[in-house]
Amino acid sequence: MASYDVIVIGAGPGGYVAAIRCAQLGLKTACVEGRDTLGGTCLNVGCIPSKALLHASHMLHEAEHNFAKMGLKGKSPSVDWPGMLAYKDDVIGQNTKGVEFLFKKNKIDWLKGWGSIPEAGKVKVGDEVHEAKNIIIASGSEAASLPGVEVDEKIVVTSTGALELPKVPKKLVVIGAGVIGLELGSVYARLGSEVTVIEYLDAVTPGMDAEVQKTVQRMLKKQGMSFIMGAAVQKTEATKTKAKVHYKLRKDDSEHVLDADVVLVATGRKPYTDGLGLEALGVEMSQRGQIKTDDHWQTNVKGIYAIGDAINGPMLAHKAEDEGMAAAEVIAGKAGHVNYGVIPGVIYTHPEVATVGKTEDQLKEEGRAYKVGKFSFMGNGRAKAVFAGDGFVKLLADKDTDRILGCHIIGPGAGDLIHEVCVAMEFGASAEDLAMTCHAHPTYSEAVREAALACGDGAIHS
User: Order of strands, edge to edge, in the sheet holding 171-175?
Assistant: First the structure.
């Protein structure tokens, strides 16, 4: 029986980061993972492979629509779908092997198999039981479906199946207009699929800034995606080659049917805790199936911690990573900390969408006096030069103190631009602090500075 200071269950972004941080802090660490490769959903069937396909399909879009404008003449490339999938698989391999290297470098034992916790202080993997002074559950999440919608990962697929379809479908129906649905929907739209998104609510990307919601939907429509809003999917019927999607419009209860070659179910994710033995241990769970933890990521059972998608909060890889590092530091006797007010969210469509902090609606609900600084990318020289003038930066600041409360960006490189605002918010900066900071020209980041200037006397280029 091997004995460890910490055993982490799950090697996704939360789990492998927690394991590395534990090892760095001098704790003897092992990580349990049942997949053949490390990295969890994110690296294997989520964030990383979807970014590869988004990049490849965006390159195709540029060749078809913008190359000629730049004086690049020639026949547009045709899509070699098996070749594109091979590129995606190579990207996955590079990343998962990278995590394996980090485990070896930090002397972390990979316990191959699926883990359970027979009692506090013990982790069972296969037939072997290992001792651990501390256990971190980082078991992640799985795709959630709807009643009447049966996933077979061939015709009715989750994001996992959507990343390995045998061919590009002629008609793709996406159920759910959240991040996953819009990203993968946009991939297939660029590759020539007729994409229809069905959403229960009246706006895409639930929880985001209302102006961003309207703008991103308008831009994706322009790119050829169709939207049916305020519609409740009743059921799907799949044959070997086709599917029918039955839905009801909320406004008048009228019933409709859509034909599809493939249906992507993108209705969110739910914590994956099956087989861990938490019920027998008496670990407290929420009604939504999440593991309950205290302010130090510890469950009600001493020595058992939980992080990432398995607990409360946004299901984001970087949130799980932060919690993984914080839990490791708590176990090592340090003060682990996560600032939940500064966790960015990004949608990797084109243009990208990025957001951090409060939305206008949230500030109105709180009754907080605020001001808005807004700047359009049409006024940004670099964006205009690369046909990326759509979108804007919107900065929200406290009306009296000028402290930055949130930022919402739709435009080129938004997922990278958001981080100067994250750093500013972490330091409690004002919009004026950001506005007074010299930004290189010509860069997309100047649009962020201009939005900060617009919180004061006004932007220069608008």
Answer: 156-157, 262-265, 171-175, 194-199, 226-229
Q: Number of H helices and number of E strands within the chain? A: 14, 22
pLDDT 10s digits, 125-139: 999 999 999 999 999
**Full-prediction pTM beyond 0.90?**
yes
C-alpha 197/C-alpha 16 separation (Å) is: 34
User: pLDDT category, 198, cuts 50, 70, 90?
Assistant: very high
Measure CA 191 to chain center: 22
Q: Which residues are catalytic?
A: 441
* One-character DSSP codes across 266-303: -S-EEE--TTS-HHHHT--B-TTSPBP--TTSB-SSTT
Cα 388 from Cα 397, distance rounded (Å):
26
- Per residue in 334-375, pLDDT tens? 999 999 999 999 999 999 999 999 999 999 999 999 999 999
- 388: helix, strand or coil: coil
Q: Phi/psi class of residue 313: alpha, beta or left (left: φ > 0; alpha: ψ in -120 to 50)? A: left
Closest CA to 341 of 394, 434, 404, 295: 404
Angle at 191 between CA 187 and CA 193, to 5 degrees: 90
Identify the three-state secondary structure at position 72: coil
Give the closest residue to 152 by CA, choosing from 267, 48, 241, 269: 241
Copy the structure tokens of residue 173: 């129906």
Q: In what order do the strands lie in the sheet with 370-376?
A: 345-347, 352-357, 404-411, 392-398, 370-376
On the CB side of 290, how many CA atoms lie within 13 Å of its CA? 17
Strands 262-265 and 171-175, sheet pairing: parallel
